[in-house]
Design a protein that fits this description.
Length: about 250
């Protein structure tokens, strides 16, 4: 598998799955565009990426809930590399909220986990069509597992899976593939960022592990490998597909 001369945008490259995906792609010689809000962390990741194969990545500090920032990801990529081959829509976050917690959480979850992906993919589409590239989206098993206390997140990720399938149909006539990776629990900062504190976070992760038929939690590296498989020519016959990686969590009782 080789990504030499492929320009790959990775959103959420400052942490977790996106960060590990960036290192993996760097080892495969990709030209990377790394985005996130935490500029200091992005620069650290960029330094490690550059050391790997000597290809200097482009860093774009961007809040995906701000349309101007989303547009800048595309304009900066074209300014620096002149093309886009692969878009990895990985960034995302959750919130602990149920039906009676109001609609603000729903708006936030839709804006970050669905609308920003729609907008960025739309803005990048013409460039990806030119290179006959592809799009990989990071969704979640929450897209099809109703979790009452994560309701806005589940709803947004469910919409995201439909986006994957519609975008795959829309872009197939141009030879562009769109696929989704749907992880169950993964080791990353995702659960810490829910703000529940260390004790509660550890408890949740232990419960998720116990509930998973394979009794383990996936690593970011494992998810990255699946993302990269779908982004590569090895997956040239795959589009509109939802790939679950969850140690069997979604088939638990
Ligand atoms: N970890 C899990 O258990 C799990 C399970 C299923 C699905 N997922 C999905 O996997 C994806 C990656 O999450 P992760 O596990 O790697 O979590 P993570 O370590 O918390 O990383 C999340 C990434 O998203 C970025 N991000 C968050 N809000 C953003 C915003 N408003 N604008 C721009 N970037 C933003 C963060 O960057 P900054 O902090 O720099 O903004 C960070 O790089 C997400 O889509 C998540 O829903 C995770």
């Amino acid at each position: 598998m080789d990504f030499k001369n492929k320009v790959v945008i990775v959103t959420g490259a400052s942490s977790g799955i996106g960060e590990v995906t960036a290192y993996h792609l760097a080892r495969l010689s990709a030209k990377l565009v790394l985005t996130g809000r935490n500029e200091a962390k992005l620069k650290e990741v960029a330094q490690k990426v550059e050391k790997t194969k000597g290809v200097k990545p482009v860093v774009v500090k961007a809040d995906l809930t701000v349309d101007e920032d989303v547009k800048r990801i595309v304009t900066e990529t074209i300014k620096c590399f002149g093309q886009i081959d692969i878009l990895i829509n990985n960034a995302g976050a959750g919130v602990v909220a149920g039906l009676r917690d109001g609609v603000k959480h729903l708006d936030d979850m839709i804006n970050l986990n669905l609308r920003s992906v729609y907008l960025l993919t739309q803005l990048a589409a013409d460039y990806i069509i030119k290179t006959k590239g592809n799009v990989v989206i990071v969704s979640s098993v929450a897209a099809f597992m109703p979790i009452a206390e994560f309701m806005p997140y589940c709803v947004a990720k469910a919409g995201l899976d439909m986006f994957t399938k519609c975008a795959a149909k829309d872009l197939a006539k141009h030879g562009v593939r769109v696929n989704s990776v749907n992880p169950g629990p993964v080791e990353s900062e995702f659960h810490e960022r829910l703000g529940l504190g260390n004790k509660k976070t550890d408890e949740i992760m232990q419960n998720r592990k116990d509930d998973s038929p394979l009794h383990k939690i996936a690593t970011g590296e494992e998810v990255a490998e699946l993302i990269i498989f779908l982004a590569s020519d090895c997956a040239k016959s795959i589009t509109g597909s939802i790939y679950v990686i969850d140690n069997g969590y979604s088939i638990k009782k």
